[in-house]
Amino acid sequence: MTTITLTTALDLYACLTNLASPWRNHVHNRVSEAGGEPDMDAWHSDFLIHLERRLNGTAVTSDGEGAETEWNTALAVATLVEVVLEGMSSRDVRLACGGEDAVQVQAGVLVDFHRLNPKPNTPEARRQRERSHWVRRLRREQRQAVAHLSAILGLVGGHGGQRRYASQIARDEHAAGMERCIAWARKHEMTNGTGSKIPLEELLLAGPRKRFATLYTLTVALDDVMLARGMAAMMVTMTLPPEYHPSPAAAGTSKYDVRLSPDAAVTELSRRFKKVREKLHRHGIRIFGYWVREPHKDGTPHLHALIYAKPEEMARIDGFVQRQFPEPDSWDGSEKTRVASTVVTIDRSKGKATTYMMKYLVKTLGTAGDGVLAADQATDGDSDKHGLADRDGIAAWRAERGGKTFGLIGLAQGVRGQWKMLAGQASLERVGNVDAFNGHPRLVEIIAAMKEKRWGDALDMMGSVPGDEPPTVETVTEVCISAYGEERKRPVGIAAVGSEDGALLRDRTWKIRPLGEGGMDASSGPRKEGDHSSAEVIPLAVERPAAVSGGGLAIPERAAAAPAT
Predict the structure, then answer these.
(1) Among 112, 344, 346, 404, which residue's Cβ finds the most Cβ atoms within 10 Å?
(2) Half-sphere exposure of 203 (CA within 13 A, CB side)
(3) Tens of pLDDT along the chain (565 residues)?
């Protein structure tokens, strides 16, 4: 157990029960199980007596200095303090309880420290002297600390009035952040050199649907290609062991280890799944597909993966999954009672493989896929079963935990961005802009297939699913210097492999500007007070096939490297 001092415990107690703390009511609810109505002032002295004696190893008995109810309440709070400090550092507790003020104060301290202790003028040293760097980092750590403290206090689980997926505190913070974002977007617009304007709020609200459209059409295309290649499909669900699950509903039988934070659960889940893929690769088993990460009711993540492979290799894949996600000792060996991992072979005579995964994709992306869900999930009318009725909770969980919630398996690198750009071009042509792109024949063929909704043909022509043919499309990147002096590559378009023409580039003339005012860099965005942006990114060079161009969207000649500043 973590060594706990009286000062540290009292510091935590003050954080949890401060009148301004959002945790106060939760502590009240938790300790009320001891009997009676908690009164912070009435049992304060009893709490100190109990806590000091407990930490000193002295027997804990009531000395008659307070009523029995007050003593029991003090006992409950002191026990709770011990449990919290066993799983979290006092620094993380203060960060979780301190709100934005704690972030700003600590960011200022860190900036002052690094400015007073200069290091060599490296990109990392310059980053550490920027307040905005520490504010972003501390906010991320704060979200993780809030999730951990919520798990220890049993505030997530969907039982007895608890919230599912994320605590009310996380939900409130996410809702406030979205309100700030939308309020900022309403005061800005997108404009380009031709004078076209688009309200930024319109783009912000359309974003989730566009992201879902990209993922949906890409997964449908992959399913078509796999079917044509004679691949079998299986849906695999992978779950972490009980020590990662707070499971408030389990009460006294919970095996949750309070030292395992929600962030540790995400890391462990990713590590185990990566191990499965490495083992399969080592044994020469090639798989394709995609995965979706989503929460249990208590916020613990688990993975659903749709895997395509040769029919004769399915049993071996299941074996490798079970080795990384072993069943508990009490397992009776039946497929129906597996809990650590489950495998379902897809019967294509009953529907597309993507149908089985669509409810998880919709749950991960929120309201964006409602129309597709209605069409593809007519066989499953229980939306609440999959968490679709609590979209706010899922959104708050995504914001709180961060990281990727969707990933591709076995496809060429960069295919998702390439697909998005080509599908966007096909959409432009569908609304009548037939002359918008006039490039390489291969790109024209792919766009034509997308226009006709022949998604599988389009993906096959791209060569993005490794097979006999190499990729025919590549990403065009631009080398830049960041505000901290680091060289980075960023995608700016796509081109046909080995071609001297036929590039499709993003229109980078669009800028964000306040309504009725001059332009501003499109990388700007809503920030809380004290969060300052850094210098602009300086383009250095474009890596591309030689002299590619098309449709008026020409890539400039390679620029000479700008001098470091």
Answers:
(1) 346
(2) 16
(3) 344 455 555 566 666 655 455 666 666 665 555 454 555 554 455 556 665 665 555 444 444 444 455 555 556 666 677 778 788 887 888 888 778 888 999 999 999 988 887 778 888 888 888 999 999 999 999 999 989 988 888 888 866 666 789 888 889 888 988 898 999 999 999 887 777 888 888 888 888 888 888 889 999 999 999 999 999 999 999 999 999 998 766 556 778 898 999 999 999 999 999 999 999 999 999 999 999 999 998 899 999 999 999 999 999 999 999 999 998 887 877 877 788 899 989 888 877 788 878 888 887 776 544 444 444 444 444 444 444 567 888 889 988 888 788 999 999 888 999 999 888 887 765 544 444 455 678 888 888 899 899 999 999 999 888 876 788 888 888 888 888 888 888 888 888 887 665 567 766 677 888 987 654 444 444 444 334 333 333 434 444 433 333 333 333 333 333 333 3
Q: Are 502 and 106 in contact (CB under 8 A)?
A: no
The number of residues in the chain equals: 565
Q: Is the separation of the CB atoms in 489 and 498 below 8 Å? A: no
Nearest to 155 by CA among 246, 264, 31: 246
- Using DSSP's 3-state secondary structure scheme, residue 6 falls into helix
Check if the beta carbon of residue 306 is closer than 8 Å to that of residue 287: no
Quote the DSSP letter at residue 266.
H
- Map tokens 């934005």 to a residue: 100
Dist CA 489 CA 434 (whole Å): 31
